[in-house]
Amino acid sequence: MAFTDVVANWGRWHAMGVRYAVAFHVVERPPRRLGYRVLYSSPRLGLWAVELADAPSGVTESASRP
Fold first, then answer.
1. Per-residue pLDDT tens over the stretch 6-55
2. Which of 31, 25, 30 is nearest to 46 (CA)?
3. CA 56 to CA 11: how far, in whole Å?
4. Beta-strand (E) ranges in 1-66?
5. pTM
6. Which of 11, 39, 47, 53 is the right S-S partner for 64, CB 3.0 to 4.6 Å?
């Protein structure tokens, strides 16, 4: 999956059963309010891996659809 429009897709990823997100290129981490646990963050390159937590309130699959 492409890691674009994180806020809009977060609920959809939960509905699909996605448990982890990994940045293989420099990209800002999602907002903390989405709820996740940082598993890895490289200090030099800025790459990271996170574990998605349960969907935060107000972020659902239907809420993320246009």
1. 788 888 888 899 999 888 888 888 889 888 999 999 989 889 999 988 75
2. 25
3. 9
4. 20-23, 36-41, 48-52
5. 0.68
6. 11
